């Protein structure tokens, strides 16, 4: 019997304009909106059993 699998696709959170961050774009922090988006995502996922995370650097 095949068990169902849940797949969560998540985009990056808001980090403001590139021009407002003087450092490397890959290190640009989330802005206030992005922080709220991350908080809501964590709330939505709750105690979901996450088995793996795949990510790209850009």
Descriptive account of the structure:
The protein has 58 residues and is mainly alpha-helical. The chain has one helix spanning 32-45.
Task: State the distance separating the first and last CA atoms.
Answer: 38 Å
The biggest sheet amounts to: none
Name the overall outline. elongated
Q: What's the count of strands?
A: 0
Keywords:
24% helix; single chain; 58 residues; elongated; 1 helix; mainly alpha
What is the topology?
Blueprint: H1 32-45
Quick summary of this structure?
The protein is 24% helix and 0% strand.
């Amino acid at each position: 019997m095949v068990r169902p699998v849940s797949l969560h696709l998540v985009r990056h959170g808001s980090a403001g304009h590139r021009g407002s961050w003087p450092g490397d774009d890959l290190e640009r922090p989330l802005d206030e909106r992005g922080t709220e988006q991350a908080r809501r995502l964590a709330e939505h996922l709750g105690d979901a059993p996450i088995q793996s995370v795949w990510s790209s650097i850009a």
